[in-house]
Write a structure and sequence with these properties.
This protein is mainly beta. The chain is built from no helices and 17 strands.
Length: 366
């Protein structure tokens, strides 16, 4: 897209631009012009070596793939961080839905103003999409669920900002459950996605346990001037899969992802919805009945937990609800056959400038 980008201290290998010299230790730009550096060093600051395009505008539903420079201005790697998709312009306006997928978190950098009356969606959804940069390699692992011919154990939910719920034991308590890993140490110092739920324990005759829900993706909204959000920023995790049959244990829900904001001047989010909540855990299987996956978080009910799968399997355990606000994911429920999966933990929301998210509906709180 013709814009040269420098990330303070480190450039990504293989990027299609000429690396400039490193920034001086005082944080100013090496050519004496610090006006093209935005955000907070080291891992949340990005520097442009020339002016970006005038506008980036989304007026109709659009999907952005963070793996390619077709959709990204550049693919830099911040210090101690992961490769990101950087999309830069002087003004950025998202007035429809921008659905963001791909392996890398998204950074939207507006040098002058970033306006979002529409929706930026980096969330994951059960069986439908994986958010940008989800299922980070830095996720803390729990213990796996155990196989059980008379009922596999339920898996733990993904953990990120808060811990996911543990899975439930299978076979009326005789088969060990999977547990959720520890939550990340806060504040999280790099842009990364949320964490995938665990896989349920297999049931009779090798019946496969339910897969874990994907964690939410990651997005950084960065402006040298104002940020105005009256729409929705979504980075929630997906519901875990059910145990399909033959007493297979259920998968855990995915954790919420990460949303980061920095405005150089003003931030107006009074009617915004900004959420990174956990998906519900799946329902454990009994011997024959179809079971239910965990719910995905509802963006229209951002403070209501995503429900664990329930009601489909009479002798299978229900899934745990996903996390909202500052809660942890709920544990799966033990029953006579397979255990339910734990709900996904909450994500992370950070405001790096001095602003407050006054008036916005936010979960979890920054």
């Amino acid at each position: 897209m013709g814009v040269l980008v420098r990330v303070v201290l480190v450039l990504c290998a293989g990027c299609s631009f000429t690396p400039p010299t490193a920034a001086p230790d005082d944080g100013s730009d090496s050519d004496g012009d610090s006006s093209r550096c935005f955000g907070v060093a080291p891992s949340f600051q990005f520097c442009l070596t020339e002016d970006p395009p005038d506008t980036f505008s989304v007026g109709t539903p659009t999907t952005l793939d963070t793996s390619t420079t077709t959709d990204c201005t550049a693919l830099p790697t911040p210090p101690a961080g992961v490769t990101v998709c950087l999309r830069a312009a002087k003004t950025i306006t998202i007035s429809s839905t921008l659905l963001v997928t791909g392996p890398n978190p998204l950074v939207l950098l507006a040098t002058e103003a970033l306006t979002i009356p529409g929706i930026i969606d980096v969330s994951s959804k059960h069986g439908a999409q994986t958010g940008a940069g989800a299922n980070a390699t830095a996720c803390n692992s729990g213990t796996p669920a155990t196989v059980g011919a008379n009922g596999g154990g339920g898996a733990g939910g993904g953990s990120f900002g808060t811990k996911g719920g543990d899975g439930a034991r299978g076979d009326d308590g005789n088969i060990p459950n999977g547990t959720a890993g520890a939550a990340a140490s806060l504040p999280v110092g790099l842009l990364r996605g949320g964490c995938k739920g665990g896989t349920g324990g297999n049931g009779a005759a090798g019946a496969q346990g339910g897969g874990g829900g994907d964690g939410g993706g990651a997005v950084y909204l960065l402006s040298g001037g104002a940020i105005n959000i009256s729409g929705k920023i979504l980075a929630s995790g997906a519901g875990g899969s059910e145990g399909v049959n033959s007493r297979a244990g259920a998968g855990g829900g995915g954790s919420g992802g990460m949303i980061v904001l920095f405005a150089g001047t003003t931030m107006n989010v009074a009617t915004a919805t900004i959420v990174a909540t956990g998906g519900g855990g799946g329902e454990g299987a009994d011997n024959s009945n179809p079971c239910d996956p965990g719910d995905d978080p509802d963006p229209d009910l951002p403070l209501v937990p995503a429900l664990g799968g329930q009601g489909g399997c009479g002798a299978g355990g229900n899934g745990g609800n996903g996390a909202v606000a500052i809660t942890e994911g709920a544990p799966g429920v033990q029953a006579g056959d397979a255990g339910g999966g734990g709900g996904g933990g909450g994500g992370v929301i950070r405001v790096l400038s001095t602003h407050q998210l006054t008036g916005a509906t936010v979960s979890p709180p920054p």
